[in-house]
Design goal:
alpha/beta, Nucleotidyltransferase, domain 5, six-stranded mixed beta sheet, two-stranded antiparallel ribbon, 4 helices, 8 strands, globular, disordered C terminus
């Protein structure tokens, strides 16, 4: 199955998603409630191990990532201060932000903080940067147990 890339613009009450193929062609876009039902509707679109998801780090990010962990998709929590998304001349909208995240993760041009499902990794409490391809660079010790090295 062809790898797909999903950009997610996450908000308190909803999230906007955009899926791209490896070629950069958009597959589908949608807006979902950030509720268990909305997340289930999103997952029902076919979220699984053949996809890479990119979502910017913000307040609701970690609960959102936790809700998607069981899908097997690779989830990149993007550091918005270190990742420059191509803005062009277009206005800033939720739909465009999701598209830009999908394109950036497709091009492997995001700086991510990955959430690992391994409990022993959480105990380490280290902060690592990783590209969607999995390359790691240790950036020092953050004590936040949610931010850990990639698996």
């Amino acid at each position: 199955m062809e790898r797909e890339y999903i950009g997610i613009d996450l908000h308190k009450a909803f999230f906007q998603a955009c899926t791209m193929r490896e070629t950069g062609e958009r597959q589908w876009e949608g807006r979902f409630a950030r509720t268990p039902e909305g997340i289930a509707r999103f997952i029902a679109r076919g979220v699984g191990p053949h996809q890479v998801l990119a979502v910017e780090a913000s307040g609701p990010t970690w609960a959102f990532v936790e809700a998607l962990r069981h899908t097997g998709a690779r989830i990149c929590v993007v550091d918005p201060r270190k990742t420059k998304l191509k803005a062009g001349f277009a206005a800033k909208t939720d739909r465009l932000d999701a598209r830009r995240l999908a394109d950036a993760v497709r091009r492997d041009s995001v700086v991510s903080i990955l959430h690992s499902p391994a409990r022993d990794s959480r105990a380490a409490g280290g902060l690592s940067r990783a590209s969607p391809s999995g390359a790691l660079a240790n950036t020092g010790g953050a004590d936040d147990p949610r931010v850990v090295a990639a698996h």
